[in-house]
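Thread: DUF2264 domain-containing protein, structure

OP (GT): Posting the sequence first so everyone is looking at the same thing. Length is 612 residues per the record. Can we get the structure tokens written out before standup tomorrow? I want them in the notebook alongside the other entries.
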Amino acid sequence: MPTPPENRELSPYTGWTRAHWEATADRLLLAVRPHASPRGGLIALPGPRPSWSGPRSDALEGYARTFLLAALRAAHGDDPHGHLGRYAEGLAAGTERPGGDGPESWPLMAGTRQAVVESASVALALRLTRRRLWDHLDDTVRQRAVDWLLPALGPSPVDNNWWLFGLTVAGFLQDAGIETDRAAATVDRALERIEHWYLGDGWYSDGDNRAFDHYNAWALHFYPVLHAHLAGDRALLDRYGPRLRAQLDDHVHLFDTNGAPLPYGRSLTYRFAAAAAPWLGTLTGHTPLTPGATRRLASGSLRHFLDRGAADARGLLTLGWHGPHEPVLQTYSGPGSPYWASKGFLGLLLPADHPAWTDPEEPLPAERADTVRAFGPTGLLVQTTAADGLVRLHNHGSDHVGDPRADDPGYSRHAYSTRTGPTTAPDPADNHFALLDADGRATPRGPVTPLGTGPDRAVSLHAPLPGVRVVSAVLVHGRAEVRAHLVLDAPEGTPVRLTGWTVHPDGPVSQLHPVHGYGPGLAELPTGATLQGPGPTRTPALHGTTAGPAALFVALASLTAEPGPEPGSAATPAPVSDLANVQVSGARTLHVTWQNGSTSRIALDAPDPEDQ
């Protein structure tokens, strides 16, 4: 299939137009066809391993998530490759003998809870194409499909964003005039449940924990706002639309100028699904972004992954970030999982003459000015630099911890960026402060208690060992970071280690410099592959030992990809020690003078344990 020509007048940053999106959708859909069952009810894609739900569930996932892509591609009646007809036949085949072991049979939700997730994609695809597909199905097929979907109206088997899958199925059934009272009750129950997790400023926690990541944008906002829009429910849209707008005010700062969204949290293999919420804001009118900035963000994200090998030689999306990378996966990830990236094609619901497709692209925040921004109640602090378009996220409030002794690379690091790590075991953790045992093993971070954010800072508390607490703080300015850790009540002489940014040889420059408490030497820890690419990688580290009941450790860090004076060249960055002067007074107060003469001050104080 030929690639449409770039249009650098309309799209000066990416070159892409709506035609590129349509052609990409067609290529992705055509690539999965050879892996469909004879009638298309299951799409069993190749992969390194099945998910924990098994191959049949994975094949349903392959059908459901690509069906959603087909529905978005055909939203305005253009379906030159006949995608919808194939998925209509697949629906009939999959629901003919559900729960069986035939070559087309879909698993039932009663025995495969992952089917609840996929029911939402099936229902949303049916809702978007109701007049073109559903209304033309045989009555028997429609009834079988309804029978398969109805169990999704029950209570969610997982107490997080999964509640919204039932809402999505209910929205389709309401539109189709089926079980409308039961469907309405399901919508109300789902919205009531997620309300408990709304903390303000556009941010939800993904369940009863401190889990803040991209699920906010393209799950916890996506489903309620899209449902309200499709239902024409002004009251719901007036309630949830402003929340989406507030979320997008932060979300847009998580995109690098090279198109990469920030790899933080779980389900990173969904990749350009990160563009779904910006498209939804434009679709509903609840967005702080101009139409040109929305397309620049979305096209930049899609191009970022396709240009870096997200699709293999067969045109199939792989399990990974750029190319395949198994450490980035969860146990629920199967070969069909990456196709939830289909959500990122939501912009195809906008007509071709919408300003989001016809206005010139506009720059993103990361390329307009240096930014330091706290994200509402989350304890997250974003730091971007316009010189290189790099985004860094400092984590002082989100952990998603189940096992306090576990280390989840997607949540437990002190910092993440659009062009680095994270490292995964057995490699040492990047951007991590740890106490070391006699064998050199590092403590995990464990649950995080946020202690506040400010215009240039974030502070948190964690307990790496029983009876030991660590107050951690970061202050940022430009590309400079002051990282401080106050260790309370550790045994005298306990070794500690701070790691910095892990970088590839052709990546940005990582710097780490001791200021207080650490020894003078900078160590180089051997590390391997990250989601950015294969190893080897370089991870800088500082070491020290505790002295007294309150031991303070301070370092300067930097990550930069500032270009050099010649096109394509890299600058040699000034030493990070030149970017700030840090003075320590008393046992725990820092006075920072930045390179431009501005100043910051912070006192590291821990709350009384009895107050926590």
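GT: Both are above now. Quick notes for whoever picks this up: The longest helix spans residues 55-73. The chain is about 30% helix and 20% strand.
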